[in-house]
Amino acid sequence: MKDLARTLIVRPGSRCKLSSIDPAGTHGVSKRxxxxxxxxxxxxxxxxxxxxxxxxxxxxxxxxQGIDAGGKDxxxxxxxxxxxxxxxxxxxxxVPEGEETRHDYLWRIHKAVxxxxxxxxxxxxxxxxxxxxxVHNLVPKPQWSRRYGQINDFERMLSENRVRIxxxxxxxxKDEQAKRFRERIEDKEKNWKFSPAxxxxxxxxxxxxxxxxxxxxxxSTEEAPWYVIPANHKWFRNLAxxxxxxxxxxxxxxxxxxxxxxxxxxxFE
Length: 269
Ligand code: AMP
Ligand code: MG
Prior knowledge:
The structure is a single chain. The chain is an alpha/beta fold. It has helices spanning 4-8, 31-55, 72-79, 107-112, 132-135, 141-159, 174-186, 196-202, 205-219, 234-251, and strands at residues 59-66, 88-92, 119-123, 163-171, 226-230. It has a single domain (4-253), classed as Rossmann fold (3-Layer(aba) Sandwich), CATH 3.40.50. β2, α4 (107-112) and β3 form a beta-alpha-beta unit. α3 packs across α10 (234-251). The mean pLDDT is 97.
C-alpha cells in the first residue's frame, strides 16, 4: 500500500490548493484492501494505545476539522472504536459560552489537551477561531490574523512537552455535502443530525475553502502537521486516518516502563 502519510501531508511552508485535491480520491486503494487494512490497523492501535497508557510519558492529540457533514463524528466512531475508553478523551468544541467567552480562545483548548498516557481527540478545535471566526467576522481581521502564529507557538509548546499532534482536515465535495444533508433529512435515524444552520453555512463554502487553505499553509508544521484527507468515501477516510495514527504511534517507539521492583525476588503465600 502506498505511503498515505507522505502522500496526504501538507508539507510545512507549502501552499495547498484544495481544488487540486480530489475529495473522492482513493490513491489506487480498493475498498476491499482498505477494509482489510483498517481491521489490522484497529487491532494494532489497540496494542499501541495500551503501550502509550503503560508508558504514561507522552500523549497523542488528534485534531479533526472539516466542513459540516464532513465525517468528523464518523471518523471517531470507526477509527477509535477499538480503543480502551479509559485511555481516550474526546472533546467536541461548540460555540464558546459562559466561562469560555471570558477567557482567551486557547484557554478551553489547553484544558482539554490529553494528559500523558492518553489519546485526546478534538472534534473541532482552536482552528474554529481562524475558520468560523474569520468567515463570519466574529473578530476583526487584525485579531484573527495574529492567531496563526499564536497557534503555532501553542502547538510547539505542547510538542516540546511530550504531546504528539496530528491534524486532519476531512475534505468532501460540495455535492457530497448535499448528498449527506439529504440523507439527514430523509433518513429518520439521521434526522437528529440535521440543522437548518448547516444549509445557511453552505452558502459560505468558498470562504471556508479560502480559510482552510490559509490554515493549512500557515499552520502545518514539522511538530504538528496537517493532513488533507479525501473524505467523500468514508472507507478511504477511515483507512487514511487509521493508517497515519497507527504509523505515528508506531514511530514513537513506546516502551513498557521498567518493573518497580526486582520481580524475581518477590514471594508471597
Ligand atoms: P457541531 O459540530 O455540528 O456540533 O457544531 C458546532 C458549532 O460550533 C459549529 O457551527 C462550529 O462552527 C461552532 N463553533 C465551534 N467552535 C467555535 C468557536 N471557537 N467560535 C465560534 N463558533 C464555534
Ligand atoms: Mg453540525
